[in-house]
């Protein structure tokens, strides 16, 4: 009986081991919230009108379809990953590509998609191949321009930032799954001739339904209020030190240095005061930057993600303004 029970538990233990490996990989990269995904209403529209069967970029944590491409096939494959999209070589079918909003990845995505479409167009029987591509409205990007100028382009829809939203990359850990888009978004549909006849997208009704689907992913007023409250709670209070708290050891070290310097100079009257670094932004922005640093240090990723988006919408890159400190070398 014990052996039978152990045997019955083996599949469950294997699942837990695979879950642990996958979750640990994404946790180690702190990447669960880096990529927003299109929401279920949009997927419903794409599935219904284009019969999309595979997501080109996803993870087990945010995938909507059973089959998807991802960065880590070694830990993602048990959950439906088909491996890297850049290794896909389909000649037919309908796909959706929502790559990470990084220029190099988007450019490579465009190159790969256009290559696949060209191969399908010249293949025997001219199979139907279709791609719905979701990109930020960064028109200066090489990938954006290449797709926009392609003869395979059937439609391009530009969504204004206030009119649509996405699923948070860490929606599996969030009370509210949707987030506002910080910038305009472009949806481009590229198809071979046969695919364009099979899955037409030129009618105004198709674009209208797409806009409504993306609009349904805008977070509710209650969700926005909850996030604003959480963000405000993370900001330093008025009168508090704007600089993120340093470690106890560092504070003690600074006190010792000050005491030693004062001892050298008698009462310290002749000691020059250390000039404070000039702040580049207004007080409110500095508080948000410091709160972003604090949220990262305390691993409050939800608040860190929200603050990062707010700062980026204001044209401020928190990673540049508050670069990560190099780790201190261990004491000898």
From TrEMBL:
<dbReference type="GO" id="GO:0016422">
    <property type="term" value="F:mRNA (2'-O-methyladenosine-N6-)-methyltransferase activity"/>
</dbReference>
<protein>
    <recommendedName>
        <fullName>PCIF1 WW domain-containing protein</fullName>
    </recommendedName>
</protein>
<feature type="compositionally biased region" description="Basic and acidic residues">
    <location>
        <begin position="319"/>
        <end position="332"/>
    </location>
</feature>
<feature type="domain" description="PCIF1 WW">
    <location>
        <begin position="13"/>
        <end position="169"/>
    </location>
</feature>
<feature type="compositionally biased region" description="Basic and acidic residues">
    <location>
        <begin position="279"/>
        <end position="289"/>
    </location>
</feature>
<dbReference type="GO" id="GO:0004812">
    <property type="term" value="F:aminoacyl-tRNA ligase activity"/>
</dbReference>
<dbReference type="GO" id="GO:0006418">
    <property type="term" value="P:tRNA aminoacylation for protein translation"/>
</dbReference>
<feature type="region of interest" description="Disordered">
    <location>
        <begin position="229"/>
        <end position="332"/>
    </location>
</feature>
<dbReference type="InterPro" id="IPR009080">
    <property type="entry name" value="tRNAsynth_Ia_anticodon-bd"/>
</dbReference>
<dbReference type="GO" id="GO:0099122">
    <property type="term" value="F:RNA polymerase II C-terminal domain binding"/>
</dbReference>
<dbReference type="InterPro" id="IPR039881">
    <property type="entry name" value="PCIF1-like"/>
</dbReference>
<feature type="compositionally biased region" description="Basic and acidic residues">
    <location>
        <begin position="298"/>
        <end position="312"/>
    </location>
</feature>
<dbReference type="Pfam" id="PF12237">
    <property type="entry name" value="PCIF1_WW"/>
</dbReference>
<feature type="compositionally biased region" description="Basic and acidic residues">
    <location>
        <begin position="239"/>
        <end position="265"/>
    </location>
</feature>
<dbReference type="InterPro" id="IPR022035">
    <property type="entry name" value="PCIF1_WW"/>
</dbReference>
<dbReference type="GO" id="GO:0005524">
    <property type="term" value="F:ATP binding"/>
</dbReference>
């Amino acid at each position: 009986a014990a052996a039978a029970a152990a045997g019955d538990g083996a599949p469950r233990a294997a699942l837990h081991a695979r879950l642990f490996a996958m979750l640990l990989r994404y946790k180690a990269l702190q990447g669960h919230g880096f990529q927003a995904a299109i929401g279920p209403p949009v997927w419903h529209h794409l599935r219904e009108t284009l019969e999309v069967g595979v997501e080109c970029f996803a993870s087990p944590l945010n995938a909507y379809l059973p089959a998807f491409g991802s960065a880590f096939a070694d830990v993602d494959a048990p959950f439906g990953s088909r491996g890297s999209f850049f290794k896909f070589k389909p000649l037919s079918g309908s796909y959706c590509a929502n790559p990470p909003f990084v220029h190099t990845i988007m450019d490579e995505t465009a190159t790969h998609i256009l290559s696949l479409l060209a191969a399908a167009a010249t293949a025997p029987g001219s199979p139907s191949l279709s791609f719905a591509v979701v990109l930020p409205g960064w028109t200066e990007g090489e990938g954006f321009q290449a797709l926009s100028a392609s003869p395979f382009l059937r439609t391009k829809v530009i969504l204004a930032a206030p009119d649509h939203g996405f699923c948070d990359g860490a929606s599996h850990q969030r009370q509210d799954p949707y987030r506002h888009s910080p910038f305009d978004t472009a949806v481009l549909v590229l198809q071979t001739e046969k695919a364009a006849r099979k899955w037409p997208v030129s009618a105004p009704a198709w674009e209208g339904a797409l806009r409504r689907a993306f609009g349904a992913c805008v977070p509710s007023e209650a969700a926005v209020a909850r996030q604003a409250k959480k963000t405000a709670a993370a900001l330093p209070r008025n009168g508090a030190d704007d600089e993120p708290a340093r470690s106890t050891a560092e504070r003690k070290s600074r006190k010792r240095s000050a005491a030693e310097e004062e001892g050298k100079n008698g009462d310290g009257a002749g000691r020059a005061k250390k000039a404070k670094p000039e702040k580049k932004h207004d007080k409110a922005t500095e508080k948000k930057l410091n709160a972003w640093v604090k949220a990262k240090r305390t691993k409050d990723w939800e608040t860190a993600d929200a603050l990062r988006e707010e700062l980026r919408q204001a044209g401020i890159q928190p990673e540049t303004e508050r670069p990560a400190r190099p780790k201190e070398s261990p004491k000898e």
